[in-house]
Design goal:
Length: 1103
């Protein structure tokens, strides 16, 4: 019986009742691979052959075919209930009492033998035990070591040393280990690679010695020392700098007892050139491995490990058709080469959202006729994913139909923390991974048992583990069936010395052996050290005599069985991220085909001829309705809009004045409930609002989903703040016999003027804040996005906002300004838009000679990103592309200027050009589109004029390709220019144009001064590994939102309150704890409680 059998039956039943899953029951009589989507040509991928009518369908043209039942069950298990999953896995993984005792005894014996030889532990293992990743010093050493190998200039490297090595408690490590390596490394004196004996004086005052050393010899000495330490560390974890060096080393002494799987180190490809370079490295490695043959069979031969993200720059679900068309042939080429050279090939596992896309690719290659007779192809399966048992079922099904065998490497998984964060950020329905490590351990054992039960003719099991209990348990499951263990080079050598060989368990072990330069080692090394040095790690605790052996080899099934709650109690579900305050907004997992198809159905069902007109009780809409067209294709009419005239505006104001008192008197809790109901309605009908954002505002799918989520977040957050601030008066201190209370009330009538770039989120955010505070609202949308505003107001009315409390007035800004804003009855204006318009509004309000109105304005920005040479170029370029080009650069927070340190500028600019070449501009309703249109012809004209000037005065770095698919819309191709100085930019350019400047290491303050001198202060990005540099920039920069080592867009409500200073706005920040206060007026009430005759509370005071 396979793991989770009862759970799988439930999933079968659930797919039978689910219409989307039912479509997955595609029956195939043969197993010739059919790609779920027909691979397009590059021209077709960019939309050249699509008709306007066809691409008006949102998402549908790129949906995959329906999968077979085994694949459908994988998708259905994406984020299944953790308690249910773990309970089923426990049934499969658990041993009978007598068997459990046999396993524990075998595991205990392994540990006892390791400890008996602990004195012979290698120097590097001693170092890692002393500086595990649970110590501050261990983390600092890794930070220094990682960044130093990346930093090209000495000045920044020395700053980094001062930053990381200055004040940590190194003293406690000196003499704490018997290993000279530990003490010498601590002191950082390995200039020649030889260990240095420490003087007694140094041992007794290490911190002083370190500071004297830095003072006398300077950071360059330490820099050289740490580089040398890293070379030694690199030797521990990297098999060789080249494949030949790695092969030679694998044949030496004790290494010769192992099998090997070679991994060519490197980052995921960002550009075509990156992908081709890695592809060639794999070709060369396979050919080099083949020359060392022959071997008795493919299992005894070495193998190559391949990362799909290394050989394709757009390996993600959004580019599914392109991945099928381009990546399948690449992987097949490598597999054919491995077959020719009689070696094995394994595709490494990566992030959870790529799992099913990888199965498309791997499945297509596995069944290819050219691989007939070769059983060396396989993949890694991650046990921490809830889908793992269903993946194994699918693999067995494919192998059975194809008549071949997989090699399956079972791993626990290396991206756990990022998977948890991603699910929380995206508001997913659950986690794809288990939230407790012991749950993963149970899953691993259940999957191991399932792999054996599939049969040796279908799956050759390979178990990657450094845990003695796991080794013993798998050996017990095996019952003499063929399998192998796998371990990482540099880890678990002592453990496996007690496993391999006829005198031990006599089971082969394959070493996962990285190959590459020390620079390429770093991301891999940090993951290994995090695993190896974590204080829960078996490797870290195996030789710790303070840990009882039976505790170390405890059966995870018994540990998990005793847990009161199977999910981790301190890791809330994504929807509960914000605790009792509010729900997290509901996102969409676009990598889950079930959710993607359901979204496509709801979005397309929501499309209709939309209408926008004034919503003002007692008024009659007049005037002709104008056509509203799609900015991606102006031939497509999506609705009609009718504007409010002055008479309608005056009626709206009269209504609002009368309605205010009643709404303000409504308890804040009641107002909050209405806004929360509006958020629920918005999520229930998100299909229509996503369609509106795509077709009226030109938003890409991911941006449209984020827009709906942000609008819901605003409603819930301001509801929560209304409860906190408005529900009860604040009791103020004072003398006995007197009560003092502070009450908050709405100011009166608020006019909310929102922009077209966030026509739902900012529109609803402004309106919800004003309503939560007790104001009546007149809402004016941007001219370009009236349909979205109209739909939002209708939804708020349905949620319970009275029609006279919230009114909708689509009209020209000049009409509103010359009529409504001149009226004394307007108590406040909330505005998002240009700085120039904010000045005009401010002057209009000030000229009224009436009560002083509140103005809340969020305006423009000349947003910069500063990167020093310690920045990781790959991450920097990813974040720059997102910050500058997402939403066609039409974000208030978008990066307009990149300041990159000269020492890495050439590399970064080259990578930026290559990454831009991979971007696709086209119909925003397609998931594969990266960049949609700009909002209208006027915006396009401004951008085109600026680009023409930059063509004359600057150097073009790159420009995204256009195609026939963009011919009928207002598309402006994103581009990047290198400019000589900042002052050639006279104002914010609101669109996808990035300006790049170089700066030298000693010019940081000049860069900050230039940015401050623009007068704007909205967002700033910083990419640096040096805390002192980061803190210095943050302290001196006059900006509202600073983002460090990430992109600078996508502020989350209540998490990153958004708003600038100086020319960028008035504050307070939207989505922040102080925002509602600006919409309120304060009143205090003081009561003399003794006026009725004495202070009873004081007279009756007890002792």
């Amino acid at each position: 019986m396979s793991p989770s059998a009862s759970g799988k039956e439930k999933l079968r039943q659930s797919t039978a009742s689910d219409p989307i899953a039912m479509l997955g029951r595609t029956q195939r009589t043969d197993y010739t691979w059919r790609s779920p989507i027909q691979p397009p040509t590059r021209a077709k991928r960019r939309g050249i052959t699509e008709s306007p009518q066809h691409v008006s369908e949102i998402l549908s043209p790129e949906l995959p075919d329906n999968p077979d039942p085994a694949r459908a069950r994988i998708t259905a298990a994406w984020s299944r209930d953790e308690t249910e999953a773990v309970n089923e896995l426990l049934v499969e993984a658990s041993f009978a009492p007598a068997e459990r005792e046999q396993v524990l005894a075998a595991a205990s014996d392994l540990v006892a033998r390791i400890r008996a030889k602990a004195d012979n532990q290698s120097a590097v293992e001693s170092f890692m035990r002393e500086y595990d990743l649970s110590s501050e010093e261990g983390v600092l050493l890794m930070c220094v070591a990682e960044a130093l190998l990346r930093v090209p200039d000495a000045e920044t490297a020395d700053k980094l040393i001062r930053d990381k090595l200055g004040d940590a408690n190194w003293k406690k490590h000196v003499g704490a280990s018997e290993s000279l390596f530990v003490n010498a490394s601590t002191w950082g004196l390995m200039l020649t690679g030889e260990l240095v004996q420490l003087a007694e004086e140094t041992r007794s005052n290490f911190v002083g010695a370190l500071r004297r050393l830095v003072g006398r010899a300077g950071e360059p000495v330490i820099r050289l020392a740490v580089r040398q330490a890293m070379r030694i560390m690199g030797h521990q974890f990297v098999m060789g700098r080249t494949i030949k060096e790695a092969q030679d080393r694998s044949a030496q002494k004790a290494n010769a007892g192992y099998r090997y799987s070679y991994d060519m180190l490197g980052e995921a490809a960002l550009t075509r050139a990156d992908a081709e370079r890695y592809m060639q490295a794999y070709r060369d490695a396979i050919s080099a491995l083949g020359k060392r043959g022959p071997w008795p069979d493919v299992l005894e031969a070495p193998s190559i490990s391949v990362k799909l993200s290394a050989i394709h720059p757009r390996y993600d679900v959004a580019n599914r058709a392109r991945v099928h068309a381009e990546l399948i042939p690449r992987v097949l080429e490598l597999a054919q080469l491995a077959r020719t050279n009689a070696i094995g090939m394994t595709v490494d596992a990566e992030e959870a959202d790529r799992l099913e896309l990888s199965l498309d690719v791997i499945g297509a290659v596995f069944v290819d006729a050219s691989l007939e007779g070769w059983n060396g192809f396989g993949l890694a399966v991650q046990a921490y994913q809830k889908r793992a048992p269903f993946v194994i079922d699918w693999l067995a099904d494919v192998a059975r139909k194809c008549g071949r065998r997989w090699c399956v490497r079972l791993v626990k998984g290396a991206y756990w923390d990022s998977e948890i964060k991603r699910a929380q950020e995206l508001g997913l329905g659950g986690y794809p991974v288990f939230t407790r490590k012991p749950n993963t351990d149970v899953s691993y054992l259940a999957c191991a048992k399932q792999m054996f039960e599939a049969g040796a003719e279908l799956i050759y099991p390979q178990f990657a583990t450094h845990n003695a209990h796991t080794i013993a348990a798998i050996h017990h499951y095996a019952r003499n069936r063929p399998y192998e263990y796998q371990r990482l080079h540099g880890m678990g050598g002592d453990l496996y010395a007690e496993v391999i060989g006829a005198q031990n368990l006599d089971v082969p072990c394959r070493v996962y052996a990285p190959v590459g330069s020390h620079e390429d080692l770093l991301p891999y090394l940090v993951r290994r050290l995090l695993e190896n040095g974590a204080n829960t790690s078996f490797v870290n605790r195996a030789v710790d005599e303070n840990v009882p052996i039976r505790d170390l080899v405890a059966d995870p099934c018994e540990l998990v069985r005793q847990l009161a709650a199977k999910p981790h109690p301190r890791i809330p579900q994504p929807i509960a991220l914000f605790g009792e305050q509010r729900k997290n907004s509901m996102g969409v997992n676009l990598a889950n085909d079930n959710e993607l198809k359901a979204l496509a159905e709801s979005v397309n069902a929501g499309r209709k001829p939309w209408l926008a007109e004034p919503l003002v009780p007692g008024s009659m809409p007049g005037g002709e309705a104008r056509e509203v067209t799609d900015p991606a294709d102006r031939r497509r009419v999506i609705g009609h809009s009718r504007s409010a005239d002055v008479g309608v505006l005056e009626k709206a104001l009269a209504n609002a004045v009368v309605a205010h008192d009643g709404w303000n008197a409504l308890p804040a809790v009641s107002r909050a409930k209405i806004l929360e109901h509006a958020a629920d309605l918005l999520e229930a009908r998100r299909g229509e609002f996503i369609a509106l954002c795509v077709r009226e505002a030109g938003k890409t799918m991911s941006a449209a989903i984020a827009e709906v989520r942000e609008a819901a977040d605003f409603c819930r957050y301001y509801a929560a703040m209304a409860r906190k601030l408005f529900a009860h008066p604040e009791i103020l201190p004072g003398p006995t016999g007197e009560s003092n209370e502070l009450f908050l009330h709405g100011r009166g009538v608020f006019v909310c003027i929102s922009p077209w770039n966030f026509p739902l989120a900012i529109f609803m955010g402004q309106v919800a804040a004003a309503l939560a505070a007790g104001n009546s609202v007149i809402a004016k949308p941007a001219d370009q996005t009236t349909l979205i505003g109209h739909a939002a107001v209708k939804l708020l009315h349905e949620a319970g906002i009275p029609e006279d409390v919230l009114q909708f007035v689509p009209c020209k800004g000049s009409v509103l300004g010359n009529s409504l804003l001149t009226k004394a009855e307007v108590a406040g204006v909330c505005f998002t838009g240009s700085t120039e318009t904010a000045w005009t509004i401010n002057r209009t309000l000030a000229a009224r000679n009436s009560s002083i109105a509140a103005l809340i304005a969020e305006t423009g920005g000349q947003n910069a990103l500063i990167a020093d040479s310690s920045a990781l170029p790959e991450q920097l370029v990813k974040d720059v592309c997102a910050s500058a080009f997402d939403s066609a650069g039409q974000r208030c927070s978008a990066a307009r200027v990149l300041f990159v340190q000269d020492d890495i500028a050439d590399k970064v600019i080259g990578m930026l050009k290559g990454a831009m070449a991979e971007l696709v501009m086209g119909d925003p309703g397609l998931l594969s589109t990266d960049v949609g249109p700009v909002i209208d012809a006027a915006s396009h004209k401004v951008l085109s004029e600026h680009a023409a000037r930059m063509d004359r005065e600057a150097t073009l770095i790159g420009e995204v390709a256009s195609s026939a698919a963009t011919a009928n819309g207002t598309f402006f191709a994103p581009r990047a220019y290198e400019i000589p100085r900042l002052d050639i930019l006279h104002k914010e350019v609101f669109g996808p144009i990035l300006h790049v400047l170089r700066w030298k290491a000693d010019q940081l303050d000049e860069v900050i001064d230039q940015i401050n001198a623009t007068g704007y202060g909205l967002t700033l990005g910083i990419h640096s590994r040096i805390n002192d540099t980061i803190q210095h920039i943050v302290k001196r920069s006059k900006v509202g939102n600073c983002y460090v080592n990430r992109n600078q867009i996508g502020a989350v409500v209540g998490v990153q309150p958004f708003g600038g200073e100086n020319l960028s706005g008035t504050g307070p920040k939207a989505g922040g704890p102080h925002y509602l206060l600006r919409f309120a007026t304060e009143r205090t009430v003081t009561i003399n409680t003794t006026a009725a005759g004495g202070n009873a509370s004081l007279l009756t005071l007890s002792e």
